[in-house]
Target: Pyrimidine/purine nucleoside phosphorylase
Amino acid sequence: MSEFSNVNVTKRANLYFDGKVSSRTLSFPNGSTKTLGIMQPGDFEFTTQAPEKMEIMSGELDVLLPDSDQWQRICSGESFEVPAEARFSVRVLQLTDYCCSFLD
Model:
């Protein structure tokens, strides 16, 4: 899906890591939420509250998922999932455009 219809967009950006990661929140009529964002090159660690699916629209990163000791390369058009209440790390190799779906 390349676009979303009938959504509300929160105007204020979510900024992390001194602005190197930013996103905007989309709210859907069924109560679900997603964020659309950009990550600049760098190393970042995130925590989740709900399960998440990260779709990489463009760019490239390595991800270290919970309960894994091996980094996995994720490129444009690929995705990965992270469970709730988890910590994961990313090494962003080039400017990366992403969509994060909260699976709760």
